[in-house]
Amino acid sequence: MYVYVSELPMPFPPRVRKRIFWQMTVCALGLLVLLLYWFPVRNLELLIPLDVCPSATMALLKDNFTGDLRLWNRPDVLTCTSWKAPIIWDGTFDPDIAQREVRRQNLTIGLTVFAVGRYLEKYLKRFLESAEKHFMVGQRVVYYVFTEQPAAVPRLALGPGRQLRVEFVVRERRWQDVSMARMRTLHEALGGRLGREAQFVLCMDVDQHFTGSFGPEVLADSVAQLHAWHYRWPRWLLPFERDARSAAALARHEGDFYYHAAVFGGSVAALRRLTAHCAQGLRLDRARGLEARWHDESHLNKFFWLYKPAKVLSPEFCWSPEIGRRAEIHHPRLLWARKEYAEVRD
Ligand SMILES: *[C@@H]1O[C@H](CO)[C@@H](O)[C@H](O)[C@H]1NC(C)=O
Ligand SMILES: *[C@@H]1O[C@H](CO)[C@@H](O)[C@H](O)[C@H]1NC(C)=O
Fold first, then answer.
1. Are residues 198 and 159 located together in one domain of the fold?
2. Confidence band (pLDDT; 50, 70, 90) for 126?
3. Within this chain, do residues 189 and 72 fall inside the same structural domain, yes or no?
4. Contact criterion met (CB below 8 Å) for 156 and 129
5. pTM
6. Residue 270 Cβ contacting ligand 2 at under 6 Å
7. Which residues have C-beta within 8 Å of that of residue 229, sequence separation ≥ 6?
8. Co-location of 18 and 52 in the same domain
9. Which of 176, 175, 187, 174 is nearest to 293 (CA)?
10. Cα(240)–Cα(302) distance, integer angstroms
11. Which of 198, 208, 230, 264 lies most in the core, judged by the most C-beta atoms within 10 Å?
């Protein structure tokens, strides 16, 4: 006996089928939400492979402080730039050689930090205490804290050869202005006592704390920090200033990496040039009624595009715990605090 296919009984009546369709849709949406929760969109960047340094360049790279770099120790990440500067990752340098070299040259290392408004009470103590444990341990260090409330700077017991100086700055009204006045203030300080006392200086944001050794392996004529949020992104996606009227503007095909203004440094002379350039760019923009997308960080990125840094620090040196685990990040050395802008920026 034949049964026509079209006459086969449907497994469910239409009403039930409709209900099943809706149940499946709701389930699928629920799964998607759970998936995004466990596996944030940010993790899609893991699908972008990291570049690797060509072996011809690896063999050549030397460093003034660490001597030979073992760049092949990290085949999983990019360890050099196209202009043959090293990108410092855990495992590529010998920290003891850098320590000895700094002592041999009898260097003093400066660390500047701005603690203005609520940033002071909220972050400065932890920043300094953790710096005493991890920043240039065993070296001569001079901290420069810039603040409008010198009396509120915590008194810490500092290790031998370490000093803390408090510099008064006037408080700007908006936090954008605080961040932008920083370059001008640093430029003046580098031309004064700070520049006479230290030979190399690191400039850092205060809303972070040290969690691992941050030693002289980071020193060079000019030092830039890869931004933890952006080191895997393709160049055209990086958040450079794109408004051509701004002094910080970079065209689509310009820019090497996106650098984080939370850490930069170098020799006093190189930092004088950097801060002069950024302060001038900020002034020009202000005169035109503009404000670059990421304020002084945009101008810093423009500077490092024009004048390439001699050394680049991997995101291990300034990591954001909000990103979660990444296989290539072995020992974070500085961690940003959670951003609580509403609380500290008014
Ligand atoms: C090392 O530098 C310090 C401070 O800059 C100075 O007081 C000291 O005399 C120097 N030591 C040598 C051996 O040059
Ligand atoms: C190494 O030192 C020399 C001389 O002091 C300097 O010209 C050069 O720029 C330094 N290199 C780096 C990578 O800082």
1. yes
2. very high
3. yes
4. yes
5. 0.85
6. no
7. 320, 323
8. no
9. 176
10. 8
11. 264
Domain tally for the chain? 2
153 and 24 in a common domain: no
- CA 38 – ligand 1 centroid, Å: 55
Q: Is 233 or 57 the better-scoring residue by pLDDT?
A: 233
- pLDDT tens for each residue of 55-108: 767 667 778 898 888 888 898 999 999 999 999 999 999 999 999 999 999 999
Do residues 66 and 11 share a domain? no
Q: Is 139 in the pocket of ligand 1 (CB under 6 A)?
A: no
Are 271 and 203 in contact by the 8 Å Cβ rule? The answer is yes
Same domain flag for 121 and 206: yes
Ligand 2 pocket: which of 65, 217, 221 to mutate (most atoms <8 Å of CB)?
A: 221
Residues 30 and 105 in one domain: no
User: What CATH number does residue 337 fall under?
Assistant: 3.90.550.10
Domain that holds residue 25: 5-42
**Alpha-carbon torsion (138, 314, 262, 286), positive or negative:** positive
The answer to whether residue 297 is catalytic is: yes
- In the chain, the DSSP E strands lie at 62-63, 67-68, 87-88, 108-114, 140-147, 162-168, 200-204, 208-210, 222-226, 259-267, 311-313, 334-336
Report how far residue 294's alpha carbon sits from residue 299's, in angstroms, rounded to the nearest whole number: 8
